Every structure is written in structure tokens, then in C-alpha cells.
């Protein structure tokens, strides 16, 4: 079990709700707004293995099927129109509250489809590159939003949204998964792989250490050069954390090779050969890449509007920006992972749930946050690891509670309930929390 | 033999915390089979003379029988424990207060006077639990287990002494986790120095998890306030505390529910771990010593007595602090809880020496969990109802102390074994904590009396 699994189970999930799996359609003229760019790109081999250049009808078939597979197959995609709607509202009314809300809704299905496309691509690339793909694109949505916020100099929003993503993964997603799984399997205790959970907890604690030192250094006014030292320290620590994460990936891949299980098959649903494409991929390699690019650009596009609307939404709805960044943004960004984690827990596949929840937290804390610091460094933004004392302490106590609860390798509904209640406490405290440095949103 | 009565409160804690009931309680109870004056048989839920009284319908039919019953009851409850020698100190304290008003003495005497009452209260609760079945019995234990501390806290709240409440509850948690547990491990380890004693890991883990969650609940309001990042300064921490208290009470309720559910699967007769008397697996597995109504009456009497003495105790705290020349913090955090926990302390040590570490853990850690997840939020709620701004912001020093203590204890418990060295470590940690509170002044106020705005 590893970080690779987050995307694996999404395919299994989609299989069950996939309506158009094997259908090769004739020409239903379904024009989605995304069909145009695809027709321009006509290279590579499709799953039919055709020389596609000559036949317009074939092309259109393929394109339509692709769209149908990717866009129309998932119930979540009903939220897709909210994206363009948000842009619409922004242009016409500029009411930030609504724009923010609609963009949130619009991004949710895109994030999920991005995960789907990533996992489809992972079929073709083999476990190594597939794992790396998942490791980077797993939280692409949060990273994209963060990069846009960085560009606008909203450093606190970046820090808080990344922090909130970690908290939501560790407490809310994991708690709901444990709770639902525990309710379904009341007679026995569910178990999961202790060793993996412990390694992840260790990495999370290391991340907390990386965040704690700059914060404490600044708070105790003991920097050598006030204000500049802890920025330098943050950048250096980020490099170290990225190095640690890279080694962690390497370590995971190496130890997985020894116990190689078909990449996308947990239960033996289709007894295929232990090949790379154990589960039939649904779209071809080039389609995957294309969709990946499309999704990423759409998400980027919507993120721009989202980030711009945050402040206005905070004023319009009278809630602190911290609450929006820490609680609201991540809940939406994680919605798809949330649902799949719960679903896997209810199928007694707790290892996958843990991979989704804790693996995602580890990824954000050891890769996402340092990555943003480095990006900020490149952009010339003073993004640092000083998340301010309150946020850092919250993360610290949360990591401790979760690490403690995970250490015996079992789960029951009470643990899930405890985690959810802890999340409520954290959410409530951010509801009444204002930033001490709230004035400098424009980056100091 | 009489000293064994002191262990009864230990079983009071057991119900809700540990899977198995008390073991060998029979063997250490002094009054197993003794037939006393008017009660030849105790197998039924009501004693013979009472049956005669009630069933015959003529209540005062036989005065002699009634008096016998009352005398027997008093003898059972009041005179059976050596600890009850301290009982006269209660009225003595009131006397001293009325006549001299010397706070130092009043404080000491009421402290001494409360100890036996607290122990008897536990005894009465456990007796009542015999009649009510495991569910209600567990609930009884869960609430009355720390009734003494809660009563003292409510009186202090009424007087607006919020810091005293916070500190005494905190001190109770610390004393249970460090001192009681440490002494138990130490004593048990000395007796069984050849091998490490073991206890039930999952239970300890669940309790540690709950304690950590409680620390989280306390940490966030304290941090919010200390870093000056509240939305509405002073008011947000209070609102957050009240909300968090509701959540903690919900968590505690579900913990009880969860415990009861998982206990049903491995149902062991409530008060009997081993089959000493192989009675039918009935609710009154252990022969209760006093009837149900007697239990309730004694419960009421003892609670009333404790309340009265608490009033004097609380009123005397500040004066005692001045008279004895020690900080109020030390009195609240160290002295009050040591006294309040005296009976549990003795019980825990004794069970450890009999290699029944699970009961010890139930007493010590279970009590800590109870106070942190039920007692503290309950006081916040009561304060809310009373209009007193009691919140979860225990100030940074106290909160940090609790945090590091919980970490140390959780870490030591996690492997499920104990030895005398662990016990010594815990005791020494407690001495460090006590010493630090000896030189600790509250940043907020020297006078705790008026409902203060924080800072």
C-alpha cells in the first residue's frame, strides 16, 4: 500500500458508476465545449489502433467517446457547468461571494477528473513513473490554487490552505472513513498495515519539526537577522524536506518491488495477468495526456477567479479569511478523495483509505509546502515556513493525536468519531481566529 | 480487614473503564457472611427486616426492628472503615470557622474531614451499582466517580473563583496520572520485582487518545488567547470553550456508549471477576451490604455533607494561602487533589500489589479521562448556566504542563507493561510538577474572587 493507491481506487470507484465502459458509439453529435481542441491533435495511437488521420468519422467517434468516457461518466460532473457560470457571474456582477462559491463547486469535479486522468495515464507508464505521477498530481488542485495565491502575494492564504488540507485529510477524511467502516463492521475491529502508518506518522512529525523551528525562531525574537533569517531557514528546510520526500518515494518503490502486486487491482476483480494494464484502461495514452493538460488548464483558470474572490467572499459572508482558507477550501479540494476513502473503508480496505488520507497529508506536508516555498523563492515571494504559532501548534497537536490513534493498527467507529470531533474543535477555533499579521496580505 | 473497605471506591471506577469487574473483592471485604443484628440474609435485594417493614405495610410497626436497621446501617457505612476516624474533623472545622475564623486551620480541618466522606461516597455508589445493573451502574460510576472534585468545583464556581476550579481540576488530572499511577506501579513493581506486570493495552491506548483529545480541547483556546488572535478579544475564547465543551461531552458520552457495547460482547458479571460465589449471573453478583434504599439515602447524606464542608473549604482557600504562606496555585493544584484522591490512591496501590494492574489503571487513568473529558466540560457548562465566564483557557503554563504530562504518561503506557522504575519516574515527574507550582503565580489575578475579564 502506498501513495500510489489514491488514484487506483478512483478507477475502481468509477468502474462501478461508469456507464459507458465498453460502448463504442456511433455518432451522437454531442458537442461539449472541449471538443474543439481535441480535433486539432491527431497523433498517436488510439485504443482501436487505427491510422486515424484519414477518416473524419472515426475521429469524431473517438473524440466523442473520449468525451463521454471522461466528462459524462461521473455523476460528480454535473457540477461542471458551475465553472463557466462562475466566470459569467464574475464578469457580470462581480459579487465575490457568489463567484467564490460557484468556483468552488466548479473545481470539485475537475479535481476528481484530474485524478482519474492521472491514474489512467499511470497504466501506460509502469509503476515507477506512475507512482511519481500520483505523487505529484495527487494534490495538483491544492498546488495550483496555492501557486495562484502566491502569484497574488497572498502568502497567508497559501499557508493556511495547505495547512487546512493536511488537517482535513488527517482528521475529517480519516475520521469519516474510520467511522463509516466501523459502523459497517461493528463486530470486528478493522485492521490496517501498522508499519506504513507509522512511517507516515514519522514523516508528518518531521514536517511539523520543519514548520516549528522557523515559527518559534520568529516568535521568540531570537533570529540573527530579524525577519530574514527565518526566511533563509525556511528555504533551506524546504530543500531538505523535498530531499526527504524524494528518498521516501525511492524507498517506497524499492520495497514495493519486492511485494509487487498488480498496480491497479486490490481485490481480484478481473484475474488478468500480472501485467501493467491489469485493469483495462479506459482511454488511450495520448487521450490521458491531453485530458490531463485540459483539466490542469481549466483548474488553473478557475483558480484565478477563486483566489481573487477570497477576500471579497470573506467580507460578504462575514467569516474570517482563516476559516475560508483552512476549512472551506480544503473540504472542497478533497471532496473526491473524501468520498473514495469512505467507500473503501466500508469495503474493509482500510489500507487504501489510509493511503488516501494519511498519504495525502504526508504528500502535502513534505512535498506541497516545501514546493510552494521554492516556487515562492523563484517568484521572488517571501513565502516561508513560519505558519504563525497558532497554526503550527494546531498542526502539532493534530499530528500527535492522529499518530497516537494510528499506532496500534486497528480502527473502530469510536476512533473515527473522535477524529471527527477533533476536526470540529479545530474548525471552531479557526472560526474565531484572526491573523496577527492580517494586514499584510500583499506580502511583506 | 477494615482497611480493605477503602478499595471499594476503586471498583466504582472500574465499571465504566475496564472490561472486567473487580476481582476478589469478596476476599478482601470484611463483611462477607457476617450476619449482623437484624439482617440474617443478604442474598436478596432487600434485607429481611426491611422486607418485613415494607411488605407488611405498617411502617412503624416494630420500632425495635427499625432502630436495628438504622444502627446496622450506620455501623456498616460509618464505622466499618478506619478512614472514618477522620470524620469528626468535619464538624470540628465548622466549629473552628464559627468560633475563630482562622482560615488556615479551617482549611486543613475541612480537608481532613472531606477525605472519609469522599471514600464513603464511593462506597455508597458502588453499593447502589449492585442493584442497578451494569449499564446504569456504569453511568453512576462515571458521574459520581469524581463527585467530590465536582462538588468542590461547583462551589468555587459559585464564588467566582474560576482559576481555583481550573487549577483543582487540572491538579486532579495530574495527580491521578502521575502520583497515583506512579505509586501503584512502584509498589506493584517492588512486590513483583522478578517480572514486569502487564495490563490491557487497548484500554490504555483509548484512554490516552481521549486524554490527548482533551489536551487539544484545552490547548486551542489557550493558544488563541495567548497569541492574541481572537476575533473578539476575550469573548471568542469563551465561546470557543463552550462549543468545545459540548463536543467533549459528546465524545465522552459516545466513549461510555462504546465501552458498554464492547463490554457486552465480553460480559463479565459486574462486580465479580472470578467466581468466588458461583451465583447465577445476576446483577447482584456480589452480595451488597446495604439495601438499595439505604444506598440512595446514604448517597444523599454524604453528598450533602460534602457540599457543606466544601463551602467552608472553598471559602478558606485564600485565607489559608495567606496564613500558610503558599501560593493559591499550589493549594489548588497539589493539595486539594491529593486529598480528594486519597481513597482512590490507596485502592490503586493495593490492587497493583495484588497484580491487578488493569483495575489500577482503571482507577488512575480512567479517573483522569473522566475529569478531563467530563468534569472540565461539565464545569464549563455549569458556569455557562450560572453566568460565570469559566472557559477552557487554563493559561499557557498549566496547559503546557498538562500537555507534556499526557505525552509522558501515554508514552509509558503504550507498551502495556509496568515496573518499579516506571513508577519512580512518574512519581519524580509529579514532584517536579509540584515544585513548579510551588513557585507559580497566576498571571491573571491574585484575587480570584470577582468574575474577571481575562487580562
Chain-wise SSE layout:
The complex is a heterodimer of chains A (444) and B (455).
Chain A: H1 5-17, H2 35-40, H3 56-70, H4 82-92, H5 96-137, H6 140-151, H7 155-184, E1 190-191, H8 194-219, H9 229-258, H10 285-317, H11 321-333, H12 335-346, H13 350-379, H14 389-406, E2 410-411, H15 413-431
Antiparallel strand pairs in A: 1-2
Helix pairs in contact in A: 1-5, 1-12, 1-13, 4-5, 5-10, 6-7, 6-10, 6-13, 7-11, 7-12, 7-13, 7-14, 7-15, 8-9, 8-13, 8-14, 9-13, 12-13, 14-15
Chain B: H1 8-17, H2 25-28, H3 48-56, H4 63-77, H5 89-99, H6 103-144, H7 147-158, H8 162-191, E1 197-198, H9 201-226, H10 235-265, H11 292-324, H12 328-340, H13 342-353, H14 357-386, H15 395-413, E2 417-418, H16 420-438
Antiparallel strand pairs in B: 1-2
Helix pairs in contact in B: 1-6, 1-14, 5-6, 6-11, 7-8, 7-11, 7-14, 8-12, 8-13, 8-14, 8-15, 8-16, 9-10, 9-14, 9-15, 10-14, 13-14, 15-16
Characterization of this structure:
Chain A: InterPro entries: CaH_exchang, CAX-like, NaCa_Exmemb, NCX_ion-bd_dom_sf. The complex is a heterodimer of chains A (444) and B (455). Chain A has one domain (74-259, 283-432): NCX, central ion-binding region (A middle domain of Talin 1). The two termini of chain A are 42 Å apart. Chain A is an all-alpha fold. Chain A is 70% helix and 1% strand. In chain A, 54% of the residues are buried. A two-stranded antiparallel ribbon of chain A has the order 1-2. Residues 1-50, 259-278 and 439-444 of chain A have low confidence and may be disordered. Chain B folds into 2 domains: 2-52, no CATH class; 122-454, Up-down Bundle (A middle domain of Talin 1), CATH 1.20.1420.30. Helix content of chain B is 69%, strand content 1%. Chain B contains 16 helices and 2 strands. Chain B has helices at residues 8-17, 25-28, 48-56, 63-77, 89-99, 103-144, 147-158, 162-191, 201-226, 235-265, 292-324, 328-340, 342-353, 357-386, 395-413, 420-438; strands at 197-198, 417-418. Chain B has a two-stranded antiparallel ribbon. Chain B is globular, with a radius of gyration of 22 Å. The A-B interface holds A 320, 388-390, 393-394, 397-398, 400-401, 404-405, 407-408, 410, 412-415, 417-418, 421-422, 424-426, 428-429, 431-436 and B 201-202, 205-206, 208-210, 212-213, 215-217, 219-221, 223-224, 227-232, 236-237, 239-240, 243-244, 247-248, 250-251, 254-255, 258, 403, 407, 410, 414.
Amino acid at each position: 500500500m502506498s501513495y500510489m493507491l489514491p488514484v487506483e481506487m478512483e478507477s475502481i470507484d468509477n468502474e462501478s458508476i461508469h456507464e459507458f465502459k465498453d460502448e463504442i458509439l456511433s455518432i451522437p453529435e454531442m458537442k461539449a465545449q472541449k471538443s474543439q481542441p481535441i480535433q486539432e491533435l491527431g497523433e498517436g495511437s488510439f485504443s482501436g489502433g487505427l491510422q486515424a488521420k484519414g477518416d473524419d468519422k472515426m475521429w469524431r467517434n473517438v473524440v466523442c467517446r473520449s468525451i463521454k468516457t471522461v466528462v459524462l461518466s461521473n455523476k460528480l460532473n454535473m457540477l461542471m457547468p458551475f465553472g463557466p457560470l462562475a466566470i459569467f457571474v464574475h464578469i457580470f456582477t462581480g459579487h465575490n461571494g457568489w463567484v467564490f462559491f460557484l468556483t468552488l463547486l466548479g473545481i470539485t469535479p475537475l479535481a476528481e477528473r484530474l485524478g482519474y486522468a492521472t491514474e489512467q495515464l499511470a497504466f501506460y507508464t509502469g509503476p515507477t513513473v506512475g507512482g511519481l505521477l500520483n505523487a505529484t498530481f495527487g494534490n495538483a488542485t491544492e498546488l495550483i490554487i496555492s501557486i495562484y495565491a502566491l502569484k497574488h502575494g497572498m502568502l497567508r492564504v497559501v499557508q493556511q490552505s495547505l495547512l487546512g488540507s493536511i488537517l482535513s485529510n488527517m482528521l475529517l477524511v480519516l475520521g469519516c472513513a474510520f467511522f463509516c467502516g466501523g459502523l459497517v463492521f461493528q463486530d470486528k475491529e478493522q485492521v490496517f498495515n501498522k508499519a506504513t502508518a507509522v512511517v507516515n506518522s514519522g514523516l508528518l512529525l518531521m514536517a511539523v519539526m520543519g514548520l516549528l523551528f522557523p515559527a518559534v525562531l520568529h516568535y521568540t525574537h531570537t533570529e540573527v537577522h530579524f525577519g530574514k533569517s527565518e526566511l533563509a531557514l525556511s528555504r533551506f528546510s524546504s530543500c531538505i524536506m523535498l530531499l526527504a520526500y524524494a528518498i521516501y518515494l525511492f524507498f517506497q518503490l524499492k520495497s514495493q518491488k519486492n511485494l509487487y502486486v498488480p498496480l491497479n487491482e486490490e481485490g481480484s476483480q478481473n484475474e488478468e495477468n500480472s501485467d501493467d494494464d491489469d485493469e483495462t484502461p479506459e482511454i488511450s495514452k495520448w487521450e490521458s495526456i491531453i485530458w490531463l493538460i485540459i483539466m490542469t488548464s481549466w483548474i488553473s483558470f478557475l483558480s484565478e477567479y477563486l483566489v481573487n474572490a477570497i477576500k471579497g467572499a470573506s467580507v460578504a459572508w462575514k467569516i474570517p479569511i482563516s476559516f475560508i482558507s483552512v476549512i472551506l477550501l480544503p473540504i472542497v479540494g478533497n471532496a473526491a478523495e473524501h468520498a473514495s476513502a469512505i467507500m473503501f473503508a466500508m469495503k474493509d480496505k482500510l489500507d487504501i483509505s489510509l493511503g488516501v488520507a494519511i498519504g495525502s497529508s504526508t504528500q502535502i506536508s513534505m512535498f506541497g509546502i516545501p514546493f510552494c516555498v521554492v516556487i515562492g523563492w523563484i517568484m521572488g515571494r517571501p513565502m516561508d515556513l513560519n505558519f504563525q504559532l497558532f497554526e503550527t501548534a494546531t498542526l502539532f497537536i493534530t499530528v500527535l493525536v492522529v499518530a497516537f490513534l494510528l499506532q496500534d493498527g486497528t480502527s473502530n467507529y469510536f476512533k473515527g468519531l473522535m477524529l471527527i470531533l477533533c476536526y470540529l474543535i479545530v474548525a471552531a477555533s479557526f472560526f474565531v481566529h484572526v491573523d496577527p499579521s492580517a494586514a499584510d496580505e500583499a506580502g511583506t | 480487614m477494615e482497611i480493605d473497605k477503602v478499595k471499594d471506591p476503586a471498583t466504582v471506577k472500574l465499571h465504566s473503564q475496564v472490561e472486567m469487574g473487580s476481582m476478589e473483592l469478596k476476599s478482601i471485604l470484611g463483611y462477607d457472611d457476617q450476619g449482623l443484628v437484624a439482617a440474617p440474609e443478604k442474598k436478596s435485594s432487600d434485607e429481611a427486616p426491611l422486607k418485613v417493614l415494607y411488605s407488611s405495610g405498617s411502617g412503624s410497626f416494630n420500632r425495635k426492628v427499625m432502630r436495628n436497621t438504622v444502627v446496622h446501617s450506620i455501623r456498616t457505612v460509618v464505622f466499618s472503615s478506619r478512614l472514618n476516624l477522620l470524620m469528626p474533623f468535619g464538624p470540628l472545622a465548622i466549629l473552628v470557622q464559627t468560633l475563630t475564623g482562622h482560615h488556615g486551620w479551617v482549611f486543613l480541618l475541612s480537608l481532613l474531614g472531606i477525605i472519609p466522606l469522599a471514600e464513603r461516597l464511593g462506597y455508597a455508589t458502588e453499593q447502589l451499582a449492585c442493584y442497578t445493573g451494569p449499564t446504569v451502574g456504569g453511568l453512576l460510576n462515571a458521574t459520581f466517580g469524581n463527585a467530590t472534585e465536582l462538588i468542590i468545583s461547583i462551589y468555587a464556581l459559585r464564588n467566582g473563583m474560576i482559576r481555583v476550579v481550573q487549577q483543582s481540576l487540572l491538579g486532579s488530572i495530574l495527580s491521578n496520572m502521575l502520583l497515583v499511577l506512579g505509586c501503584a506501579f512502584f509498589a506493584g513493581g517492588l512486590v513483583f520485582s522478578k517480572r514486569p506486570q502487564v495490563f490491557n493495552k487497548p484500554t490504555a491506548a483509548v484512554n490516552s487518545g481521549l486524554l490527548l483529545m482533551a489536551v487539544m480541547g484545552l490547548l486551542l483556546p489557550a493558544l488563541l488567547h495567548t497569541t492574541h488572535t481572537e476575533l473578539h478579544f476575550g469573548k471568542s475564547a469563551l465561546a470557543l470553550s463552550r462549543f468545545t465543551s459540548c463536543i467533549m461531552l459528546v465524545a465522552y458520552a459516545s466513549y461510555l456508549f462504546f465501552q458498554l457495547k464492547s463490554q457486552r460482547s465480553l460480559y463479565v458479571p459486574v462486580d465479580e471477576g472470578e467466581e468466588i460465589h458461583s451465583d447465577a449471573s445476576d446483577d447482584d453478583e456480589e452480595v451488597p451490604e446495604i439495601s438499595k434504599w439505604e444506598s440512595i439515602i446514604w448517597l444523599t447524606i454524604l453528598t450533602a455533607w460534602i457540599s457543606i464542608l466544601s463551602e467552608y473549604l472553598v471559602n478558606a482557600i485564600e485565607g489559608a494561602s495567606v496564613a500558610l504562606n503558599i501560593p493559591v496555585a499550589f493549594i489548588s493544584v497539589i493539595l486539594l487533589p491529593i486529598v480528594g484522591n486519597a481513597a482512590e490512591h490507596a485502592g490503586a496501590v493495593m490492587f497493583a500489589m495484588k497484580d491487578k494492574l488493569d483495575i489500577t489503571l482503571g482507577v488512575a487513568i480512567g479517573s483522569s479521562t473522566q475529569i478531563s473529558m467530563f468534569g472540565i466540560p461539565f464545569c464549563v457548562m455549569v458556569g455557562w448556566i450560572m453566568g460565570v465566564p469559566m472557559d477552557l483557557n487554563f493559561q499557557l503554563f498549566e496547559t503546557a504542563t498538562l500537555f507534556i504530562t499526557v505525552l509522558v504518561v501515554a508514552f509509558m503506557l503504550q507498551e502495556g507493561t509496568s515496573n518499579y522504575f516506571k513508577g519512580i519516574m512518574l512519581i519524580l515527574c509529579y514532584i517536579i510538577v509540584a515544585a513548579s507550582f510551588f513557585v507559580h503565580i497566576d498571571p491573571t489575578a491574585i484575587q480570584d474572587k470577582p468574575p474577571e475579564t481575562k487580562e
